[in-house]
Write a structure and sequence with these properties.
mainly beta; 5 strands; 70 residues
């Protein structure tokens, strides 16, 4: 928790940076992503360069981990 992760959406090539936080601190608009969300669950335990597929309400997302920081 409290790690920053930068991910790239491989379908549209957009890059996003999120801080993984507890559910009570989550605020998607502020870039704070709850560790209980499907995206965060897919990222936990991965390393830079890894690619993951995540099922979200809008469909399947393919993401690449670009950077992990504190």
């Amino acid at each position: 928790i409290l790690n920053k992760v930068t991910i790239r959406n491989l379908k549209n090539n957009t890059t996003m940076t999120y801080t993984l936080v507890s559910e009570s601190e989550a605020d998607f608009k502020s870039g704070k992503l709850s560790v209980s969300t499907p995206i965060a669950k897919a990222l936990i335990g991965k390393k830079i360069g890894d690619k993951v597929e995540v099922q979200v309400p809008a469909g399947m997302m393919e993401l690449e981990i670009v950077d992990i920081g504190i």
